[in-house]
Every structure is written in structure tokens, then in C-alpha cells.
Amino acid sequence: MGVLPGRSLLCILFLIIIISEGHFRWVEAQHCVWYGECGESVKVPGKKYNCNYTGLPRPLDAKGYDLLTELCPGYDYENRSLCCDVNQLQTLKGSLQLPLQFLSRCPACFFNLMNLFCELTCSPHQSQFMNATKIDETNNVVEVQYYIGQTFANAMYNACKDVQAPSSNVKALSLLCGKDAKDCNATNWIQYMFDINNGQTPFPIIPIFSDVPVSGYTPMNNKTYACTEGLEDGSGPCSCQDCTKACGPKPLPPPLPPPWTILGIDAMTLIMWVSYMAFLLIFIGAVLGAWCYRKRTIMSEYGPILDSNNPLSLNSHNPDQVNASCCETLGERFENALRTLFSSWGSFCVRHPSVVILGSLILVVSASGGLVYMRITTDPVELWSSPTSQARQEKDYFDSHFGPFFRTAQLIITTPLNGSFIYSPYFGGSDVPFGAILDKDILHQVLDLQLDIEGIVATYEGQTVTLNDICLAPLAPYNNNCTILSVLNYFQNSHAVLDHTIGDEFFVYADFHSHFLYCVSAPASLNDTTLLHDPCLGTFGGPIFPWLALGGYDETNYNNATALVITFPLNNYLNDSVRLGKALAWEKEFIKFMKNFKNPNLTIAFNAERSIEDEINRESNSDISTIVVSYAIMFIYISLALGHIHSCRRVMVDSKISLGIAGILIVLSSVSSSLGIFSYFNIPLTLIVIEVIPFLVLAVGVDNIFIIVQTYQRDERMPQEELHQQIGRILGDVAPSMFLSSFSETVAFFLGALSNMPAVRTFSLFAGLAVFIDFLLQISCFVSLLGMDARRQEGNRLDIFCCAKLPVTQETKTDSFLFRFFKKIFAPFILKEWVRPIIVAVFVGILSFSIAVVNKVEIGLDQKLSMPDDSYVLDYFKNLSMYLHTGAPVYFVVEDGLNYSSPEGQNVVCGGVGCNNDSLVQQVYSASLISNYTTIAFTPSSWLDDYFDWVKPQSSCCRYYNTSGAFCNASVVNSSCVHCRPMTPSGKQRPEGEDFMHFLPMFLSDNPNIKCGKGGHAAYATAVDLYPNNTGVGATYFMTYHTILKESPDFIDALKMARILADNISQSMDHKVFAYSVFYVFYEQYLTIAYDTALNLSVSLASIFVVTTVLLGFELWSAVIVSITIGMILVNMFGVMWLWNISLNAVSLVNLVMCCGISVEFCSHIVRAFSISVKKNRVERAEEALAHMGSSVFSGITLTKFGGILILALSKSQIFQVFYFRMYLAIVLLGATHGLIFLPVLLSYIGPSVNKAKVFAANKRDAGTERERLLNY
């Protein structure tokens, strides 16, 4: 018991001590830690220490009232007794300029941050949460501990973590946290701001985070505002762009449409398979039924005599008339008119060859004279984009308001050296692996290369051209440094800066590793936070974003990069051929330099703006030899095959080499005439026209030549018939068929010219005219030449050496081998009873397969195919898709007419406080959150939001000389410079009306500097199109980037998604906004290529149907059969395209239009021969048509083309191999098989019945003549 009073006394004493300590701490809390500024900081020159002071707070000098209201409005009451003076407030304002410019977009964030610094600097309760741990001998506070509530720190960070830096497309914390925003958190952000190594803090401030008292200190835990809350001064909550919580749920991309399947099988495949099986069952059943019926029917031996279906049967009522329908009679009269016309014309041509040939020559020369005005278009924009297309009009709008998109020269650099190396930061932190390409020695070698490129000198018209003459220099004339997007620009393109290190003989504290790591997280920084304090901003005044300068990294781990990307943007010029010529001359020297550059440690892929066009031209020149060989083979074949040699002795008499050459010259004359006529009208040619049309006209023209010549060779002259009459009669027989095919093709091609694609339209125009001119020359000039050659042959004169003559001998006339083969073997075989069903089944099966895969043919043109096999650009394309992480820039252009001076006009565009939730910037930002779907990679750079931050009165950015009113840059120290706007509630609001336009030109001319990083000259000088005399804002753009686009479908999808987004923005703004990127003009065609293809081919087929109906003598069913067969060939072409990986684009569409034309040649001659045949049933008529026309079609088109096509496979050009060799081969093979195999079989089943009027007229015309015997043969 005696112990207890002692213990109680001890407890009471301990309690008194605790209470008194708390009392003394509370009393002490009413005192300051410092007051006023003393000596200059040793660690950070230009900054000062605060003076040690533990007395009571002192009243603020009246001079500082406005400053206190601006910085710390919470202390602006009563006598304003604080622990800071006016100098400290001014220092605080200077230190907070950078955070102010980037974080004031979000009022809650900036309020919380100011709270942190105001409490630190001026709080009258300083000693409650601050401890001066070091005071030097001159009474300077050189280190303090700052106790901060963890709750406050977290709330401040959460309010600021999403704030954007619009001009640099990154989070603001990336610029203010010393590391990438994703690695930043509440504690390391505050630690960084208070770290002496950040270049702003004059002495160490050690933050201690706790929500409970620590060592007798009560942590500062003031009230904070969430970014979703408004402030008491009326400031609204932060925008969605700067505050994720204000956005609601993250947008989700719509689910991808599931593939169309039935029972887990591709729907088209299953449907066509079932349809084909059903067709086979029905068809085989019908064939077997018909066969059984015929077997059971007993035919009368007098059937043929009593067959009243035969117009000339003995059972006919009147041998002088026939029971023909009105259409049949009309058709016969039309046919007879054509026959008479062509017969008379043919006779005239043979009788007056000199007149006809001379007249033809004069006309050809006159037409071809236009070639002196010929222009060849190689500009890809002119080739692929119609002047009236949406993309072209948007490009023209962009170019006229902002200037054309810059040209680029680009290097993608890798190294064959393997392995990575580890960097261990001196100040702690985990080890950082660096890729081999970021080794310092490699960087020095790359810098040497970059400096050599900068030193390239070209010559243009006697003048020297350097990079400085043509490069993009956004800050000129104040700063003439060229824009070079290179990781070396983090080191100011200097070997010395790259070698800059801070350390001693034992340790390296900071070097290029630490500077690189800082710059990739804060590329717009003017002062890194390492001990180096080197700028990251490029020498040209703009940031170098790591996703543009590095490649081959994962996520945002730029240190793992395996490639460096160096881009030299060059000025592009509209309607200035001299300056454009200088740019082209420099690019030419650049390409030459890079081709000769050798470094064993560097592997370089490169490209200049002119590279693709240069390589296409080189490819065209190198392919000339291939094309010449191809045509030479066809010419030799034609010259030799036209002749029908009866015996070795008469080889030179019976050959038709000279006639073949003349026929080829006629084909070439028709091509040159077509080119010349359109050149007179100033319509430019394209490479497609030059490469494709001779092939097409050769197919059509040679076919007609073979038909004329071989029909003449098989014909026997009638008694008392002269040569001119015989050739006239032959022309009367075959010319309607030639006219049918040529006119069908001409109409089809001319209708194809309705296409919006310039390449397709130009091809169709030139091809249609060339085919028709070729037909006219063949029925005139060629017929005259045939007559002359026939006279030579009859006179036994040698071909070519026509003066020499062989003695007259009796020769037996025989048919050609090919004719005998078709007549005796081929035609009878394919029309056998058991062969025909197999042919139908096979062809319908191929058709079913092709229909099933039509929707699977890829759309687009792989740009790699347009390059030669040995092109350096192929390496560049390969590296582009392998290493690059960002696609092309995309601009959202707001067209002229929006009133930016009004709050309504501002709110529909901007992305900051008070802006609409569906504003332009906000919608693009939302799209960037689902970039895998929208292809929008980043938040857009917004000149309007940066202008609002720049013009704020709290900022030091917007100032002017009060004497002259001229703009005063933030870096200028001059007492006459005053803030643009007053520090009043209205002054803190956005500028409107005249204020808006008064300060905007200043913003657009302000160069960013260390005191004001928001200057708009570098980032936005071209983004705003001001009216004359700065009276208003016209068109403007907001730029971001697409995600990386590798294949044609990626580019097409990017264009489609950007347009959808732009349309949504236009609707919400009620003002026109469009998306523009440099590749849109090339890929727009693919948005409608399927529709354009269907329309072009349908129009061509319809025109062929109409022309065929008329020219076959109004035989509707014949025209239907021709159209069905051509339709099958076209559909099967799509099957071949899918099998052979040929994509659908303008080149393949041209080939498909051409396929439509050539298919007419394969089909129309056979169908016409079938329609005028007088055989007794469809099988025999089909056999006769195939025997007589098949050999001419086969030798005229198939064999002629086959040799020439095979040579195209040897071309170095991939586009030739894919789009010409493969497609031409498919066109010829499909056309030949359908025209010579399927069509006769189809005619044998469902061919049109015989035209009684035509047969009657033919038999009446030939009755009792030798012609009757020949027809029956």
C-alpha cells in the first residue's frame, strides 16, 4: 500500500509532462519556422534560402495583398499575419509558373496544389507541421521536414493524375513528376517537387506522410477538392478529359459482328454447296429423263423429210415463203442490211486500195499528232482520287487553309549488335535494361550520320540547296533550326551534350541514361530533373515524342527500343515549282547519299517523299524490256500463224508475214490514234493505260484479223466471182460479228468511264476509242491490204520479196491443222452425249465455288506490290510495319464559320473546365480510350485549351508593353510589361469577344521558353487560319495520331472510323468538321470499291446485252446466253483472285472491265455463228459454230496471248506479276474454256431456236452455188 501513492504521483507527473508538452507544442504551433529570404542557395543558383525565424506571424505588407489573393486566397482575411513576406510570395509565384500552366486546366487540382505550397510558405501555423532540421551559421534554413497528411496527398494526386497537356499529347504529370505519369503516385510526385535536384527547390524539403501526429507534429491535412467538385469561387468541376471520374464509365467498343455461319460452317460456302448439290440432282435427273425418252421414241425414217421445223423441208407449204415471226423477219432484214453494207464496203476497199490506205494513213497521222501534247500522270493523287471525291475536296481544303502536308525523309535504324545493357540509377530505383541501339557509341555513330545528312548539298538550276533551305522550321525567323524528329534531339544534336555526365571519380550521378529516361516521359521539358539539367525540347523548339523517334519497344518501355526513327519533315509547296524543285533535288541527293552509306554497326532502311514515284518510274522503265519481249513473241506468232502453208515449196508464197505485220501496225495505229485524240483534249495518260490498252486492243484486233484471214482461206471463190466480190462477200459474212464484238466492247468501256476512279475512267475512255478505231481500220485498211496480199498469192509472188515469183503449179487446197482439229476431234468430242453433262457439272461447280468466295476477296493494294523486287523502299516498308508504334497524324478540321469568340462556340470545341461533354476535343479523347477500335491513338492537341491556359492572369505567359501594346515574352524582364488580363473574377474567365481576338495572335507568335511552356508558335502556328488583319478565326485543326497501320484493311478501317467520329462531332457541334490524313485520298476508293465494281461490271454487262440483242437481229435469248457466259467468267475471276491472293483495287478493277471486253470476243462470234447456222438441231449447230469460229478464236486470242503472258511472269515488278501476269492468264484461260467448251455445250442444251427468216434467206441466197456444198461441209 505504501508504494501506491508513489506510483500515483509518478503517473500524475508523467501526465503533467505530456499535457505540458502538448501545451508547449500547441503554443509553438502558433509560431513561424521562417520569415523572409536570406542568402543565395548553394545548390540552385538564383534561388534563395528562407531566414530562420521562430516568432509570431507578421502582418503582410500591403504591396503583397494582390499577390496573396492570387496565390493563397484562403489567407486573405483580417490583418493577414503570415510567416512570409512579399519576396517569398513572388518567389512562390515564379516557382509555380510551370505547374500553373499545365494544371490550372483543372481548378480542383490546382487549388489543392496551391494549398500544399501556401501552407509550406506562409502558414501562420507553420511550426505545427514543419520542423527546421538544419540551419546554417548565417541563420538560413537549409533543410526542413514537412509533415503532410496522407489523405491530403492522395486527394491532391487523384485530382491531378488525369490532367492533360494538350500541346504534347501526354499527361501533365509526365512533365511535373520527373517520370512517366503511369509511374507517378502521390508520394513520389511530392517528393520530386521538394527534391533539390529538380532545379527549382533551393534546399531539401523532406515530406513525411501520415494521417496521425508524428513526433509531436500534426500533419497538414487541409480540406481538398475532388476533380468532380466545383470551387467556392465559382470555378466548375474539371472536364472529363482531365478527370476520369467526371466521364462516367469508360466507353466500350461495340462487339465485332460475328462471322456469318450456319451450323458452324461459313454461310456462303454451305449455301453454295447445297445449291450445287440441288442443281446436280435436278440436272442429272433431267438429262437421264430426256435420254430415256429418246430411247423409247421410235423415229420415222422419213422424219427429216417431214420435219416442218426445217424451213427447207419437203413438207414446207410454200418454198418461196417461210412462217417467220415479226422479230425474226426484222432480225433478218437488219442482218441483210449489215451484210449488204459491209459487202459493198469490202468490195470498194479491195478495188481502191490506194485511196483507202492513204486515207487511213492521213487519219491515223492526224489523230496521232495529238501525242505531241501527251501528258503522263504519275502523281498518285491524280491517279487514284477523283477531283470530286470527298477525300480530294477535303485535301484541297486543308492545303488551301493550312498549307500542304509536309514532305518527309525518314530513316529506320537498327543494329546487328546483339544484347542489351543494364543501367543502375545512382539515386536508387530498379535496374533499367537498355536496347543495343541505345548504346552511347551507337548513338554517336547515328548522330554523325544525322549531321552528315544535315550537311547534304544539292544543286537545282545552278543554285545550291541545303536542308535549311527546305526544312520545316516552326520558330523561324527567331529560330532557324530544322525540325528533326530524332532521339538525338533530346541531346540537342550535340556530341558534347550526349557525353555530358555529373559524377566524381567513384560514381556517375547522371548521364545520357538518366536524361533519356526523363525526356521520354517529359519530352516538352526545358530542364530535366537530373543533375544534368539539360533540356529535352528539340533545338527546333518543339517536343520529340518517343513514339515517333523510337521503335520496337513494348508498351511504353522506351528503353527497350530496338530501332531509332529519324524523320526530317520538309516544306511542301502548292503551285511553286521552283521551291518544290529544290526539295526534290535535295531528296535526290539524300537518296544517293543513303544508298552509298556504309556502317557495319548500323542497318538502315530509308525513304524520301519522292521514293515511291521514283521507284514506280524505274520499275516502268525496267519493265519496258519485258513488255517488248512479250509483244515481240505475240507479233512473231501472229505473222507466222496467219499463213496457211500448203507445201514446203510454197512457204514464202502462202505465208502472210507482211500481212501479219500490217495487221499489228493497224492495232498499234488504233492505240496511238486513241492516245492522240484524247491528248488533243488535254486528258492525261496513266501508266495503266500505256501498259494495258495495247494488250487489250491486240486481243480484240488480232482475233478479228484471224477471223477475216482464216474465213478467206477456207472460202472457195464462186464461178464468175472476182476477188473484190469474194472478199466483199466474206466481209459481209464476218463483219457483223466483228461489229457486234467491237461495238459491244466500245459501249461497255465508254460506260465504264462513268466510274469515279480516275485510273478506271481514263482507261475506259482510251480503251473504248482504241477498240472502235481498230475495228474501223480493220474493215477498211486491212481489207485493202488483204486484197493486195491475195493478188500477190494468186500471182505466185513471194511474201515480203514480192518482186520474186514462183512458177505456176497446181496445188491442192487443204484446211489448216487447227481447223481440222476443231472440226474433226474437239467439237465432236465435247458435244458427245455423255461429255456434255460432265462439262456443265464442272463449270457450274466452279461457278458455285467462285460465288462462295466472292465476299472473301481482299480489298486494297499492298503498297509493297508497287515496288520492284530489288527496291530499297521494300526494306523501308518492312521495317515500318515491324518497328513503328504510331500511325500517321490525323487532323480534325473545323471549317470556317464557327464563332470562337463566344462561349457557345468555345464550349463545343474545347476540352477544359466548362466545355461540353460532347465537345470536339472530348469526343476525340473518348475515342482514344478505345484506340483498338477507333484507331485514334492519343488525345488531340488543342490550341484553344492551351490558349486559355496561356492567357490566364495568374500565368506569366501573356504580357504586353503598357507603352506600346506590343507583346512581351515571358522571358523578358521589364517593368513596363504588364499582364494581359486583370486579376479580377472577370479577368480569370475565358477571353471573349474582342479580348479573344486581341491576344490570340500574340499566343500564336509566342515561342515556348522555360518560364512559359505554353507558347503556341511551334505547336499551333499553322493550326489556326486567321482572317486578314486578325479580325477573326477561320478554319482550324486539332491534331492527333492514328494507331500503327500496317496492311490495307488497317488504313481503310482508320479512314472509316475517323469519318464516323468526324460526323458525330459535326452533329453535336452543328458545324462541319472533317477528318484529314495524308493517306485518305489513296484509300477512300476502297470504301466504295465493292459497289463501284458491281456497278461498273453490271453496266458493262447490260450494255453488252443491249448491243448484242440489236446486232444479232433482235435475238433476245442469244444476248441472254452471251451475258450469262460473260457473267460466269467475271464471277470465276473473283474465285481466281481469292485463290491467287489478288486483291480488289483500281488496278484489278481495270483488268475486270477489260476481262468483260475480251470475254465478248470469246463468246459473241460463237453465238452468232450458232444463230445463223442452218443445221437441223442445236447440237449440230453448236458443233458447226465451234468448228468454224472456234479455231479462229483460239488462234486469234488464246494462242496469241499465251506466249506474251508467260513472259510477264519474268518481270521484276511485283505489280506486273500479280495484276498482269496472274490476271491476264486467268482472263485468257477462263475466256477460252468458257467460250470454247462451256458455251457450245450450253447452246446445245438451251441455245436459241433457228431464225427461220435468216435460214430461208441464206439458203435462197446460196441455193445452187458452190457455197451450198461448203456450208454443208
Report the count of strand segments: 29
Cα end-to-end separation: 150 Å
Supply the number of helical segments. Answer: 45
Helical fraction equals 40-55%
Model regions low in confidence, pLDDT < 50 over at least 5 residues: 1-29, 298-320
Give the structural class.
Answer: alpha+beta
Q: Provide the CATH topology of the domain at 823-867 and 1087-1272.
A: Multidrug efflux transporter AcrB transmembrane fold
CATH class placement of the domain at 823-867 and 1087-1272: Mainly Alpha
Main beta sheet? 5 strands, mixed
Task: Report strand %.
Answer: 5-15%
Query: CATH homologous superfamily of the domain at 823-867 and 1087-1272 - what is it?
Result: Multidrug efflux transporter AcrB transmembrane domain
- What is the general shape? elongated
The CATH architecture name of the domain at 823-867 and 1087-1272 reads Up-down Bundle
Average the pLDDT over all residues and give the rounded result: 84
Rg on CA atoms, Å? 43 Å
Signal peptide: 1-29
Transmembrane segments: 270-293, 355-376, 624-645, 657-681, 687-709, 763-787, 834-854, 1094-1112, 1119-1140, 1146-1164, 1185-1211, 1223-1246
Pfam family, one: NPC1_N
Keywords: Cholesterol metabolism, Disulfide bond, Glycoprotein, Lipid metabolism, Lipid transport, Membrane, Signal, Steroid metabolism, Sterol metabolism, Transmembrane, Transmembrane helix, Transport
